[in-house]
Design a protein that fits this description.
Layout (H helix, E strand, L loop, with lengths): L31 E5 L17 E4 L9 E12 L6 E7 L11 E2 L4 E3 L11 E10 L11 E9 L3 E3 L6 E7 L10 H6 L6 H10 L8 H6 L1 H17 L18
Parallel strand pairs: 1-9, 2-10
Antiparallel strand pairs: 1-3, 3-7, 4-6, 4-8, 5-7, 8-10
Length: 253
């Protein structure tokens, strides 16, 4: 999670908000700037932060769960608020593939007033966007997109330009982990499938320990996890099949 920080600066120097600085929060002036925690696009130079999205998936939920929350962290830099302040979210249709029935946005959201700590660089609040299951999700293996933009009200103003929008991606299944590469397929878990991954993390790797670092630094632990999964598959033949209900799920250890 990116937690690069920025100065609070007067309006005359607002363009400098494109560059993040790790320093204590400046609270001179009267302006308050709001922005999302994650960058919706790569940071302008000299920043090096990369674009990121918020993932929401029904992957870890039972089929009867039809609504989940996508959590977005909102930051505020500047003078402490003297009272709770509200802001809105605007959907950007040209950057959104989600249909209105697949998400739920409140009329307004609240940023709570509270003092910043002496060494703070911002304050933060978390809001929830409700995402709804739809039958067409199965046709979008990489998910549907919901692009949101902050609309400040009252004493709030827009902050860093690369963080005034947030991208939410909703999927039915998990997106293939970056670490599930050729060597993992060949030597450990075999060919990737969403069903295989779900069984693995549901019944064996419940703490989500398995990744490239585990394979590289603690190879024996990685092998043990896969062997435990192999044992589970052998003990549960009815569940250990792909989505077609026929093809057995296997691993390569």
């Amino acid at each position: 999670v990116m937690k690069k920080l920025l100065y609070y600066i007067p309006m005359a120097a607002l363009t400098l908000l494109g560059a993040c600085t790790e320093d204590a929060l400046k609270t001179f002036g009267e302006d308050r700037y709001v922005y999302f925690e994650k960058f919706y696009r790569d940071a302008d130079a000299p920043g090096k932060e990369k674009a990121d999205s918020t993932m929401a998936s029904f992957f870890f939920y039972n089929d009867d769960v039809n609504t989940i929350d996508a959590l977005l962290e909102v930051h505020m830099a500047g003078r402490d608020l003297t009272h709770d302040e509200t802001f809105k979210l605007r959907v950007l249709p040209e950057e959104t593939t989600a249909k209105p029935e697949e998400y739920e946005i409140q009329d307004v959201y609240t940023f709570r007033a509270r003092k910043a700590q002496p060494d703070a660089t911002n304050r933060n609040d978390t809001i929830a966007i409700k995402m709804h299951r739809s039958t067409r999700l199965k046709d979008f293996p990489h998910g549907i997109r919901l692009m949101l933009e902050l609309v400040p009200q009252g004493e709030l103003r827009l902050g860093q330009s690369e963080r005034v929008k947030a991208l939410v991606v909703l999927t039915k299944d998990a997106i293939r982990p970056k670490w599930w590469k050729e060597d993992i397929e060949r030597d450990l878990l075999g060919t990737y499938s969403s069903k295989k991954y779900k069984l693995f993390v549901t019944y064996v790797d419940t703490k989500l320990q398995f990744n490239q670092e585990l394979v590289d630094k603690y190879t024996s632990k990685a092998i043990l996890l896969v062997r435990n999964f192999k044992r589970w598959l052998a003990e549960h033949p009815r569940e250990a099949v792909e989505e077609d209900g026929i093809t057995p799920i296997t691993v390569n250890v």
